[in-house]
């Protein structure tokens, strides 16, 4: 389960480019909270705090609790716009959450037991097709990562989503095909020794 991040926020009375520029000069980042059939709330957060949260590496699949005017709003970050030159955050969007509201999140994949893969032991290479999985789950069930066991996989074999055990309450957002997550491929030295018989 991803950790919950907290950010202090204040409401914005003025919106628009000019007002946003003033906020950024003061070290604040304009943002908006929307969703759950409620009116959007224009807010601003401290730039340093937002940058620190972004630096965790799992900002977009963490619940972010925004404290606004003494109230705590549970949200999921949906977008952060960055300045094209300076890479500083310029605006953030947060989706308001309820406990039973299913959300789409991208969760990183990690691979376990590589030493138990016959193909990797032979010098094969794990070719990762998807570094993240798009999942659907309730906010409280968002996993930090999905660990995939590669033991038993040989050269030429692929790991598909059907072979992955997802945590309880978590489903793949892609349901129309058994997509590939990674493949164990032969190293280039092995290919050249055997002679590549494939035709372009």
UniProtKB/TrEMBL annotation:
By its UniProt entry, which CDD domains does this protein fall under? Ribosomal_L25_TL5_CTC (cd00495)
Domain of life per record: Bacteria
Extract the Pfam families matched here: Ribosomal_L25p, Ribosomal_TL5_C
Query: Which InterPro entries does the record associate with it?
Result: Rbsml_bL25/Gln-tRNA_synth_N, Ribosomal_bL25/Gln-tRNA_synth, Ribosomal_bL25_b-dom, Ribosomal_bL25_C, Ribosomal_bL25_long, Ribosomal_L25_dom, Ribosomal_uL5_bac-type
Task: Enumerate the spans annotated as Large ribosomal subunit protein bL25 L25 domain.
Answer: 7-94
Q: Where is the Large ribosomal subunit protein bL25 beta domain?
A: 103-187
> Keyword Cytoplasm, does the record have it?
no
Instruction: Give any Gene Ontology cellular component.
Output: ribosome
The membrane-spanning stretches of this chain are: none
State the UniProt keywords alphabetically: Ribonucleoprotein, Ribosomal protein, RNA-binding, rRNA-binding
Under PANTHER family, the record lists: RIBOSOMAL PROTEIN L25/GLN-TRNA SYNTHETASE, ANTI-CODON-BINDING DOMAIN-CONTAINING PROTEIN, RIBOSOMAL PROTEIN L25_GLN-TRNA SYNTHETASE, ANTI-CODON-BINDING DOMAIN-CONTAINING PROTEIN
- Give the family from UniProt: Belongs to the bacterial ribosomal protein bL25 family. CTC subfamily.
Q: What does this protein do?
A: This is one of the proteins that binds to the 5S RNA in the ribosome where it forms part of the central protuberance.
The entry describes its oligomerization and partners as: Part of the 50S ribosomal subunit; part of the 5S rRNA/L5/L18/L25 subcomplex. Contacts the 5S rRNA. Binds to the 5S rRNA independently of L5 and L18.
Q: What is this protein called?
A: Large ribosomal subunit protein bL25
């Amino acid at each position: 389960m991803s950790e919950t991040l907290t950010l202090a926020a204040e409401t914005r009375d003025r919106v628009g480019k000019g007002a946003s520029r003033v906020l950024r000069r003061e070290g604040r980042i304009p943002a908006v909270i929307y969703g759950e059939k409620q009116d959007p709330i224009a807010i601003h957060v401290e730039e340093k705090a937002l940058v620190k949260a972004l630096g965790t590496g799992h900002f977009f699949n963490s619940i972010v609790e925004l404290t606004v005017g003494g109230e705590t709003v549970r949200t999921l970050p949906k977008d952060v716009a960055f300045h094209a030159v300076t890479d500083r955050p310029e605006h953030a969007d947060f989706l308001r959450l309820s406990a039973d509201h299913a959300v789409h999140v991208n969760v990183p994949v990690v691979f376990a037991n590589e030493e138990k893969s016959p193909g990797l032991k032979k010098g094969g290479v794990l070719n990762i097709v998807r570094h993240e999985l798009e999942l659907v789950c309730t906010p409280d069930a968002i996993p930090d990562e999905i660990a995939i066991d590669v033991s038993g996989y040989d050269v030429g074999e692929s790991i598909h989503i059907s072979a992955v055990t997802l945590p309880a309450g978590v489903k793949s957002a892609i349901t129309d095909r058994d997509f590939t997550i990674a493949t164990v491929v032969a190293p280039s030295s092995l290919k050249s020794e055997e002679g590549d018989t494939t035709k372009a």
